From TrEMBL:
<comment type="similarity">
    <text>Belongs to the class-III pyridoxal-phosphate-dependent aminotransferase family.</text>
</comment>
<dbReference type="InterPro" id="IPR049704">
    <property type="entry name" value="Aminotrans_3_PPA_site"/>
</dbReference>
<dbReference type="InterPro" id="IPR005814">
    <property type="entry name" value="Aminotrans_3"/>
</dbReference>
<dbReference type="InterPro" id="IPR015424">
    <property type="entry name" value="PyrdxlP-dep_Trfase"/>
</dbReference>
<keyword id="KW-0663">Pyridoxal phosphate</keyword>
<protein>
    <submittedName>
        <fullName>Beta-alanine--pyruvate transaminase</fullName>
    </submittedName>
</protein>
<keyword id="KW-0808">Transferase</keyword>
<dbReference type="InterPro" id="IPR015422">
    <property type="entry name" value="PyrdxlP-dep_Trfase_small"/>
</dbReference>
<dbReference type="Pfam" id="PF00202">
    <property type="entry name" value="Aminotran_3"/>
</dbReference>
<keyword id="KW-0670">Pyruvate</keyword>
<keyword id="KW-0032">Aminotransferase</keyword>
<dbReference type="GO" id="GO:0030170">
    <property type="term" value="F:pyridoxal phosphate binding"/>
</dbReference>
<dbReference type="GO" id="GO:0009102">
    <property type="term" value="P:biotin biosynthetic process"/>
</dbReference>
<dbReference type="GO" id="GO:0004015">
    <property type="term" value="F:adenosylmethionine-8-amino-7-oxononanoate transaminase activity"/>
</dbReference>
<dbReference type="InterPro" id="IPR015421">
    <property type="entry name" value="PyrdxlP-dep_Trfase_major"/>
</dbReference>
Length: 439
């Protein structure tokens, strides 16, 4: 492969990237297989984050590659409005076999952000078609990440993603986040303290009245903000309060979906069924962009009235149910099933937790959090330079051939679910060295 020049790095304005830093010292990936990327210098880089929380079955999986190749030659595109192709139905059926009981209607999108905005619109429209059009308020949570579209950043709660973009959606409010370092730091798995934090929703009901609230959206595990695990009982409590007030509960499972926490979905790991669920990422193993909203039957049914020739839900994308994405997703679900990957995080989670928590006591490590095959290591920031210590550790690990991810001063790990113990050891040893060097 030819080495890119400075000039040909110029035109691409990279997303969520320190562009100037990157272009001075580019990190270019050219191939991937199994647990490893290869960079443009031919180095092997161990993937500690499943690409971007998405390549759950590892890279270059034959069933998925073949499915995409065959599909491209057979049916490259089919219009999704008033038309369809068989794999869209097959995939929906396969998906609802994996979801919690009763969640059996699949609406396709192309990303997590689109899934979130779709779910929010579905919630608003659902109340309206049932004659409760006063329910227009959407509730998110502080520190939540729901993608980058206007709906998602409105209900999202990460300040950097919100502050630049004006007023966003009106009528949105937020419950408090669940992070309680004073009481829960270094908890292995779900924290003991904080179920009562769900009662913050009662505060918003008292403030706005339930008759104005359409839905609450939360990530079962808040990933992008730095891996915040729900306290024991918290999601159950949230479910109860939503039920009491007729508020829809939306789980954003874009990260937790497809095996990350030890079950197909976080809803199953935590034993709470939402009304709507957003997915993306692991749906196609990251190979072709695709997302979906999965709804309970009664939500779908509420729309199915009026003259039969009329569209029931005025929403959809040109690439909803794209044939290549459906083929990739079917190949992905086959791979997950054949290799037992959707429960593997439960089996390996204990070893992963043990290794991750062995970093306790290293300089500047102020908290460690984990569930299934996701882990967060929080560091105290360099004085006056937030996020820099973690970024330096990210660069150090990259130099040593391990890809990790950072958000603020938290290191997030979410390796492919095919990971083996030796890879976990390698990631943790590399991280240990980098944390020590960053002291
Ligand atoms: C919980 C959650 N929701 C939504 C998104 C947005 O997904 P996408 O980047 O595919 O739009 C993400 C991405 O990380 C996510 O973690």
């Amino acid at each position: 492969m030819s080495q890119p020049t400075d000039a040909n790095l110029d035109a691409y304005w990279m997303p969520f990237t320190a562009n100037r830093q990157f272009k001075k010292a580019p990190r270019l990936l050219t191939r991937a297989d199994g647990m490893y990327f290869t960079d443009d210098k031919g180095r092997q880089v161990l993937d500690g984050i499943a690409g971007l929380w998405c390549v759950n079955a590892g890279h270059n999986r034959p069933r998925i590659v073949q499915a995409i190749q065959q599909q491209a030659a057979e049916l490259d595109f089919a219009p999704p409005f008033q038309m369809a192709h068989p794999k869209a139905f097959e995939l929906a059926e396969r998906l609802v076999e994996l979801t919690p009981a009763g969640m059996n209607k699949v609406f396709y999108t192309n990303s997590g952000s689109e899934s979130v905005d779709t779910a929010l619109k579905m919630a608003l429209a659902y109340h309206r078609v049932r004659g409760e059009g006063s329910r227009t308020r959407l509730i998110g949570r502080e520190r939540g990440y729901h993608g980058v579209n206007f709906g998602g950043i409105s209900v999202g709660g990460m300040v950097g993603n919100r502050k630049m973009f004006g007023m966003m959606l009106s009528g949105v409010d937020h419950i408090g986040h669940t992070h309680d370092a004073a009481r829960n730091a270094f908890t292995v798995g779900q924290p003991e303290h904080g179920a009562n934090l769900a009662d913050d929703l009662e505060r918003l009901v008292a403030l706005h009245d339930a008759s104005t609230i359409a839905a609450v959206i939360v990530e079962p595990v808040a990933g992008s903000t730095g891996v915040l695990i729900p306290p024991k009982g918290y999601l159950q409590r949230l479910r109860e309060i939503c039920d009491k007030h007729g508020i829809l509960l939306i789980f954003d499972e874009v990260i937790t979906g497809f095996g990350r926490t030890g079950n197909p979905f976080g809803a199953q790991t935590f034993g709470v069924t939402p009304d709507l669920m957003t997915v993306a990422k692991g749906l196609t193993n990251g190979c072709v962009p695709m997302g979906a909203v999965i709804a309970k039957q009664h939500i779908h049914d509420a729309f199915m009235n009026g003259p039969e020739h009329l569209i029931e839900f005025f929403h959809g994308y040109t690439y909803s149910a794209h044939p290549l994405a459906c083929a990739a997703a079917l190949g992905t679900l086959d791979t997950y099933a054949e290799e037992g990957l959707l429960t593997r995080a439960g089996e390996l989670g204990g070893y992963f937790a043990e290794c991750l928590h062995s970093l306790k006591g290293l300089p500047n490590v102020i908290d460690i959090r984990n569930i299934g095959l996701v882990g967060g290591v929080e560091l105290s920031p360099l004085p006056g330079e937030p996020a820099k210590r973690a970024f330096n550790i990210f660069l150090d690990c990259w130099e040593k051939g391990v890809l990790i991810r950072t958000t603020g001063d938290t290191i997030a790990l979410s390796p492919p679910l095919i990971i083996e113990r030796k890879h976990i050891d390698h990631i943790i040893d590399t991280l240990r060295g980098a944390i020590q060097r960053a002291a």
